[in-house]
Amino acid sequence: MKPSSTTVTYPYHHGHTPQQPTNSPSSAAVSIQSAYRAHRIRVLYRKIAAVDAEADRLQRLIQRQDTVDAVRANHLEKLRMNEALMALLLRLDSVPGIDPTVRDTRRKVTRRIVGLQEILDSVSEAQIDESSWWPMKNWDEVLADMEESICLENGGDEMERFCAQNLGFRCLQRFLREP
């Protein structure tokens, strides 16, 4: 006896799976809500990313020597920089925390901006004798002193010693990025 030959057909769908028709209104509602939540989170992340990019720009500006000199010499320049940082904080404040990851991301950027405000305040409050500033100290030494004080405030004596001896400017950068 010879076995009979039968033809078996397999459906082919060009790389995507066929959608099962939704049988209930609740499953349709769940998929619509899920798509909306994903869209909403993407929009919020874009807002946070825009604020973060602006914070990067302000950080680069604050690190420039001419900006430091202007902030020390002109109180209005310090106010202008503080206003820009506060505007970023207000933009972040308008982002609702509807998702835990959005809240965490918003919190990290907020802490970074607050750190920039603290650095701006410490730069403007640093009292340096103008007659002996340049011959006695260079900009790297001034930055090292600022880093030392920030590390001392945040980590205690051992952290301050480690940061001042081993990390240098990287300590400041790490402080700005810490959550």
Q: What are the SSEs and their pairings?
A:
Blueprint: H1 25-62, H2 65-73, H3 75-93, H4 100-125, H5 133-136, H6 139-167, H7 169-177
Helix pairs in contact: 1-3, 1-4, 2-3, 2-4, 3-4, 6-7
Textual characterization of the structure:
The chain is an all-alpha fold. It folds into 2 domains: about 35-125, Methane Monooxygenase Hydroxylase, Chain G, domain 1 (Up-down Bundle), CATH 1.20.58; about 135-179, no CATH class. It contains 7 helices and no strands. The chain has helices at about 25-60, 65-75, 75-95, 100-125, 135, 140-165, 170-175. Helix 1 (about 25-60) packs antiparallel against helix 3 and helix 2 crosses helix 3 (about 75-95).
Structural features:
about 180 residues; mainly alpha; Methane Monooxygenase Hydroxylase, Chain G, domain 1; 2 domains; about 75% helix
In short:
The protein is mainly α. The protein has helices at 25-62, 65-73, 75-93, 100-125, 133-136, 139-167, 169-177.
